[in-house]
Design brief:
The protein is of the alpha/beta class and 596 residues long. The chain folds into 3 domains: 86 residues, Gyrase A, domain 2, CATH 3.30.1360; 269 residues, HUPs (Rossmann fold, 3-Layer(aba) Sandwich); 184 residues, Isoleucyl-tRNA Synthetase, Domain 1 (Orthogonal Bundle), CATH 1.10.730. Strands 7-6-5-11-12 form a 5-stranded parallel β-sheet, with helices on both faces. Strands 1-2-4-3 form a 4-stranded antiparallel β-sheet. Helix 8 packs across helix 11 and helix 20 runs antiparallel to helix 21. The two termini are 38 Å apart.
């Protein structure tokens, strides 16, 4: 029972005893006591004046006197202008902690029976994953974990954008300039190799545009008439018409990319329950376009292109099929949405996509609604802000992105350098050190990104993220290792402890009560974060708990405590802190070391 519900229940008992009246508990309001007043929680007295027939202060005092006299969980009270500020006793907090200890997977909510699909990553097969993709992957994975912690059945899916004009650009550049280069011959990861040719296409295209402009063509005309672009467009047309040569080149280069992606996902600790491919799903959308034409909500133009006019909805006209019959992203998303809801009977579908696509998903929901799908409102776009570096924005086609693989390698080296400088290796062998460096580097990167509200644009600073002090992943990781060190020393002393060591009579310090309060908030924090689709709330909760433990550790000589009952209580307390940190950071996809 939450503190709020406990107070409401006791208030109803008190009103019945004092005034002989039943009270509608839905009218009672309880809130955390404001910092400037003494107390833990505050009951608003005004809704009770109709039954007390007394002033707010006298009603509050009568209730407070009854609470203290009849409920051992309540130690004291004060009344301020009709607000009853209640201070819980140590009996109450010990009972709360005993209930926390009794739950092994504390924070995990009961099953809801609700099925939610989360689509994230969704890379293009013309380039490797970069820093922007990292935020997408980490958000998608963490939100999936968060929803699972809230009791939902979650499906993590990836839609690989493996066809389209951008893919053909890399293919065309390799065909023209590659000279048969392969990942094996170059020693490059396949996704990096293909990404290099995407940049080379852009360089070729820019040069052609300049040449055409020098011959008197306007910039807009030159961009449309550049030979390389026309060749790429022709290649896409041939792909959609199953040209054997184009399809063979596409399969070979995509195969290189998939192998590279797989390695990056593994290094990030990311996996999917199912992977969809645009090359297999875009035709579903074409069938829906025909349905929309038959219903009269889409219209075909003279050039054979198909559009949906949304001007009456305050939007614009949306292209659904080009004049040559080729698909656009909207075509695919319409089809895959229908397929997924039909196949899995989803209660909700979450798309983790950057905020530059806000309009796209607004249109997607609107068109699906017009097509008669009642589940259209069950689509949710988790729109997140871009990631920038201290040196500015990144552009894939110009080759100015920070590749995910390169960033992870940089983070590993920084974690290694920092750990060696601080001497946090505790006699580890080379293999253990390598595992620790990887754990710290991923923890630093993931935490730094996930602690920021998803909707905000963020600046990622690798050096700042690896700090062992402050609101960082390594700080929380080191906190966990410190707790495990204490627990190991306790075991070496032959100390055994468990739930039975938590009893109502235990004497608690103010810091211990503060920690129990924070622990008691964990399930509600998971629920709040799940409703907001924001892992940042869990990240910052973990930091608050870790920070509180470190202050407690600094002031409390845990293992030097002579009172054996109190010593064991404290060991139970810090063990639970460690378990909650593991649960919270696990939601973020971050592992915690047992020694450093």
């Amino acid at each position: 029972m939450t503190p709020e519900n406990f107070i409401i229940a006791k208030a109803a008992e008190a009103v019945k005893a004092l005034y002989g009246a039943d009270v509608d508990t839905s009218l009672l309001q309880v809130q955390v006591t404001r910092k400037e007043f003494e107390g833990d929680y505050t009951l608003v007295v005004f809704p009770l004046l109709k039954v007390s027939h007394a002033s707010p202060d006298n009603t509050g005092k009568a209730l407070g006197d009854y609470f203290v006299a009849n409920f051992p969980e309540i130690a004291a009270f004060n009344v301020v202008k009709g607000f009853l500020n209640i201070s819980f006793s140590q009996v109450y907090w010990n009972n709360v902690f005993a209930s926390i200890v009794a739950v092994e997977d504390y924070g995990q909510h009961e099953p809801t029976g609700k099925t939610i699909m989360v689509e994230f990553s969704s890379p293009n097969t013309n380039k490797p994953l970069h820093l922007g993709h990292i935020r997408n992957n980490l958000l998608g994975w963490s939100v999936s974990q968060l929803l699972a912690a809230n009791g939902h059945d979650v499906m993590r899916v990836n839609l690989v954008n493996d066809r389209g004009i951008h893919i053909c650009k890399s293919m065309l550049a390799w065909k023209k300039l590659g000279g048969g280069e392969t990942p094996a011959s170059s020693g490059k990861k396949g996704d990096h190799l293909v990404g290099d040719y995407y940049v080379k296409f852009n360089n070729l295209y820019v040069a052609e545009v300049k040449e055409l402009m020098a011959k008197g063509m306007s910039e807009d005309e030159a961009k449309k008439e550049a030979p390389s672009l026309k060749e790429a467009q022709d290649m896409l047309f041939r792909w959609e018409n199953n040209d054997p040569e184009v399809r063979a080149l596409w399969e070979m280069m995509n195969g290189w990319v998939y192998e590279g992606f797989g390695q990056t996902y593994k290094n990030l600790g990311i996996s999917f329950d199912r992977t969809y491919y645009e090359s297999q799903t875009y035709l579903f959308g074409k069938a829906l376009v025909q349905k929309g034409l038959d219903m009269g909500i889409f219209e075909r133009q003279a050039d054979n292109s198909v559009w949906c006019d949304l001007t009456s909805d305050g939007l614009d006209r949306k292209l659904l099929l080009r004049g040559d019959g080729t698909s656009v992203y909207m075509t695919q998303d319409l089809g895959t949405a229908e397929q997924r809801f039909a196949e899995y009977s989803l209660d909700e579908h979450i798309y983790v996509v950057g905020n530059e696509q806000n309009y796209h998903f607004q249109v997607l929901k609107l068109i699906l609604g017009k097509l008669g799908f009642d589940w259209a409102d069950s689509i949710y776009h988790l729109s997140y802000g871009m990631v920038e570096l201290p040196e500015g924005k990144m552009k894939s086609r110009e080759g100015t992105v920070v590749d995910a693989d390169d960033l992870m390698e940089q983070m590993y080296n920084t974690a290694k350098e920092t750990s060696l400088e601080l001497g946090k290796l505790d006699g580890m062998d080379e293999k253990e050190q390598d595992e620790l460096f990887r754990m710290l580097s991923l923890g630093a990167m993931k935490y730094f990104i996930l602690k920021v509200d998803p909707r905000k644009t963020m600046l990622f600073d690798p050096k700042e993220s690896i700090d062992f002090n402050g609101n960082t992943g390594p700080f929380i990781q080191y906190t966990h290792a410190r707790i495990q060190s204490i627990l190991r020393k306790a075991a070496e002393k032959g100390l055994s402890f468990g739930a039975a060591d938590v009893c109502p009579e235990s004497a608690l310090s103010a810091k211990e009560i503060r920690i129990i309060k924070i622990l008691s908030n964990f399930p509600d924090k998971i629920a709040e974060a799940g409703a907001a689709h924001s892992p940042a709330l869990v990240a910052n909760y973990a930091y608050e708990l870790a920070k509180e433990f470190n202050q407690y550790y600094h002031d409390t000589p845990i293992l030097r405590e002579e009172d054996q009952a109190l010593l064991k209580y404290r060991l139970v307390l810090i063990e639970k802190i460690a378990k909650v940190l593991v649960k919270a950071m696990g939601i973020l996809g971050i592992d915690l070391p047992y020694r450093m």
